[in-house]
Structure formats: structure tokens, C-alpha cells
Specification:
By secondary structure, the chain is mainly α. The protein has 23 helices and 7 strands. The protein starts with a strand and ends with a helix. The structure holds flavin-adenine dinucleotide, ligand DLZ and iron/sulfur cluster. The site of iron/sulfur cluster has 14 residues, from helix 15, helix 19 and helix 20.
Amino acid sequence: MRTLRLILGDQLSKSISSLKNCDKKNDIVFMCEVMEEATYVKHHKKKIVFLFSAMRHFAEELKSNGYNIQYTKLNDNENAGSFKKEIERQIQKFNINKIVVTHPGEYRVLKDIQSYSEEFKIDVEILEDDRFLATTKDFNAWAKGRKQLRMELFYREMRKKHNILMDGNNPEGGKWNYDSENRKPPEGSLFLPKTYNTPVDNITQEVIKLVEEKFNNHFGNIEPFFFAVTRSQALEALDKFINERLCDFGDFQDAMLEGEPWMYHSHLSFYINCGLLLPKECIQAAEEAYKNKKAPLNAVEGFIRQILGWREYVRGLYWLKMPEYKSLNFFDAQKRLPDFFWTANTDMNCLKQCIQETKENAYAHHIQRLMVIGNFSLLTGLNPMEVNEWYLLVYADAYEWVELPNVTGMILFADGGYLASKPYAASGTYINKMSNYCANCKYSVNQKNGEKACPFNYLYWDFLARNREKLKNNHRIGMMYKTYDRMPEKKKVQITKDSQKFINSL
Ligand code: FAD
Ligand code: DLZ
Ligand code: SF4
């Protein structure tokens, strides 16, 4: 009788709870590449290459550390195709009587794993994922009794609890949040360091061949492939960010430039989410840089807030609200995704750039996801199920626990305001201020109506008008109705007409 320790594709950390107290001689450590995971949504090809390569490298590392590793490759003849069937096969092969696994990141997978004890008549132990800084229990306790949840309040608690960027009982520098200093528009003369780039080794090369063969009809480009796939490479990527980009991260956090997908962001989400980096070590590295005067407080606080605040907050919210959260549709938005979400073939230059970069890199930075693609999805009333599926499959850092709250809560306001206090809706003016996209666009950002007008300009007002009953009492957006009401009737009719024409053309 033996114990099987299951390691999922986003659990590639040696300190993972499922490996604690492992009996290296007897226990089986099991990992598998399965068709079901790669196709339940048709993940970006680069994402599959990244994850399979990182899994294979991680398995090699565990093996050299003396663990008894069983690894099923996607193209192994006996591969049974799903977690459940693969587990069943291992139970029979090794006479397994107990499964130990760290809490998975997705509700769907949790339900699957919970069914094993009944189905296979074995003991299943699901352990806390202690790579997160807040347990789901901690989060639920914090959320209890609150009508609305606000990230900022949660974040302050986390700062205090973990003693991060604190000066005694007060926040470092006297303020909790330095966002007001972090909204600089891009400057043409910015020096942008290159993102982390590492040569492809034999393991990755083999995976690239496999993915080209098996997932040829999935979205996205595989090459050039430059992601880190091992722990030591991911640490180099962290180092590179801290030394080369963190100092400007804050100032240009919201800026977008044509042909510059990476800006001053960290590009660490792939590695943090699959376990190659731990969130805590990224936070500590940034805090250390502040203490050593390598980076200013607005940059360091901003970066730490994303990980200690937003990342932990969306994860807590996901587990608090699932499974209901997945079917929310506050605005009853029903429009299907336009084709250009797959081809980038649109005259709207901002969308063209962001979708093309997504296709090339399986990455877009936060403001591209939020204020360009997200804003468009909100204003045109795209169906939340379809938008969620798109975001889940196109980004190499996407797992449902982090993708769903960002899409349903943050961009679509489909939860009616549980995550965000108001919809992130904006006209073309915002995109023009924060990017240089409009200079190369067929549409004119300065025109408000008509054939040549930037569609965001009329869609913004039409969205507010269409959803008035649901939004009029929102104190953060309610004042916009006063502006709308002051518009001449003729202008309002034109807004509706332009918007209907545009939406029908999608
Ligand atoms: P940076 O800008 O350098 O930020 C540092 C780190 O903070 C990130 O690596 C990430 O771990 C964390 N972080 C920042 N913002 C968020 C956030 N809103 N939620 C959770 N963590 C955050 N992030 C994902 O990791 N996976 C997703 O599937 C995902 N989907 C998103 C969908 C939408 C519609 C939006 C608006 C945001 C989404 N995000 C997602 C959040 C954010 O856009 C990405 O984490 C970020 O762009 C990753 O790039 P980076 O590592 O360069 O981040
Ligand atoms: C995303 C993904 C993919 C594409 N493939 C696998 C796989 O073959 N094997 C595996 O263990 N994990 C994979 N994953 C990650 C899982 O989907 C992830 O563990 C769940 O989404 C839970 O967060
Ligand atoms: Fe986007 Fe409008 Fe600017 Fe064109 S004009 S790039 S559609 S914001």
C-alpha cells in the first residue's frame, strides 16, 4: 500500500504542501500531461508549451532530488487522457491507498479530485495551498458581514499582518497607496529594457514539436519562445525585473506604446502562477530594493499592492463566490465575441495592437487587458461566458481562480459591483492619453459621432444610457448621467444610432 502525491501543472514549487513529509523511498510523486486539461478551453499554443516544458523540467529536478517520480507525457501510449483516468491507472499500477494533493486552483478540478475517494474507495487528503499569503479561511473571515468587498481595505490588513512596507504601525512613507503618482502617460523617449529571454533547450524543443502536432488549431504563436521554464531561470527573470524595470514600474504602470508589449511590467505572472516563483519572495525582493534605494516607494508599493493586494484578493473572492460567480451576468450581456478577437483584424488600432501582441506573446499587460480589450467587451455588451473563455485561454498566466474575478468582476461588472465599486468604462480619450495608438488609427479620437469617430466615444455614452436603471444609483458613476442629460436630444439620438450600427456590424 502506497501514497500517491499528485502535483498539478500549476504546483511547480518544491515547497508545495503536498511534498511535505514525503517518504521518498515509498511514495509516488505523480505528474501528468493530459488532453482534458489542454483542451477544456483551447489554450494558447505558447501557454501549453510553457506549462508542459516547465512541468517536465520540474519533474527532472524532483528526480535528481531523490523523489520517486512517475510522469505521464501527453503522447505516451498508455496516457488515459484526464486526471481522473490517469489517477485510476496509477492506483492500479502501484496499489495506491491514499492520495495527497495541494488544493487545486480551479473549482472544476477541486470537484473532480473530491470525487476520487468515493469513486476509487481511497483516502484523499487535500492540503492548504500555503504559497498564498492569505488562506481562504482568513479571507472568508475578513469578508464576513461586509456588503461590498474592497481590495484596498483587504490590502491594508495584509500589509499589517505580514509587516510589509510598514513603519511601526504606519504605512511606509505615510500613505498606503501611491497610485496618484503612477499614472504618467508614455513618453516617446522611454528606454525600455528587453524582457527576460532564454534559449530553447532540448526539453522545450521536444514540447514545441508535440504542441505543433497536437494543438495546431489552437490560438497563438509558439515562436519565438523565450519564457523561463525552470526555477533558476524564473529567479533570473525576477532579478532582471528588480534591477532593470522596477524603478519605473510605478510611473508608467498604465502607459501603452505601439510595438512595446512589455513596458515596465514584471512579466512574472506566468512564473508566480505555476509555482516557479513564490509570491512572497517577489514581494520581499521589491521591498529589499526599496530599502537599498534601488527603486522609489511609488514603484515598490504599486508592485507589492498587485501581488499582496489584488492577487490575494481575487483568489479569496473566487473561492468565496464559486460556483455561482461563474454564471453572473448583471447587464444581461448577450453579444457574441467578434471574429477579430482571434485574428486581430480590426480598424480599431488599440484593439489590433493588443490582440496581435496577445497572439504573439500569450501576454498583454494589465491596462491593455482592462482598458482596451476589457473596456470594449463591457461597452459592446459581450457575453461574459465567452469573454471569460477567451481570457482563460489566451494568456499564459490564466487559471480560473485569477482570470474569472478579473473578467466577471473587474472588466464586465457582471457581479453587479461586488469586486469593483464602478464599471471601468472609458471613452477614447483615456486610451489616447495613456497610449500612442490613436495616432495610427483609421478612426479619429477627437470625433464624437459619425463614420470616422472613435467607436469608444459613442459606445461609452450608449452603455451608460442602456444600463441606466442598473447604474443610476451608483454614486461613482451616477454623476455621468447629469452630463448625459444635459446633451441635446439630437446628440443622444446620434449616439444610439452610431452605437447600434457599430454593434450590429461586429
Ligand atoms: P505586473 O503588472 O508586473 O504586476 C505584478 C504582479 O501582480 C503580476 O505578475 C500578478 O501576479 C499580480 N497582479 C497584478 N494585477 C493583478 C490582478 N488584477 N489580479 C491578480 N494578480 C494581479 N492575472 C493573472 O495572473 N492571470 C490572469 O488570468 C489574469 N487575467 C486578467 C484578466 C483581465 C481582464 C484583467 C484586467 C487582468 C487580468 N490579470 C490576470 C491581472 C493582470 O493583468 C496580470 O496579472 C498582469 O498583467 C500580469 O503581467 P505582469 O506579471 O507583467 O504584471
Ligand atoms: C493549464 C494546464 C494545462 C494546459 N495542462 C495541464 C496538464 O496537462 N496537466 C496538469 O497537471 N495541469 C495542466 N494545466 C494546469 C491545470 O489546468 C491546473 O492545475 C488547474 O487549472 C488547476 O488550477
Ligand atoms: Fe482606439 Fe479610438 Fe484611439 Fe482608434 S481612435 S486607437 S479606436 S481609442
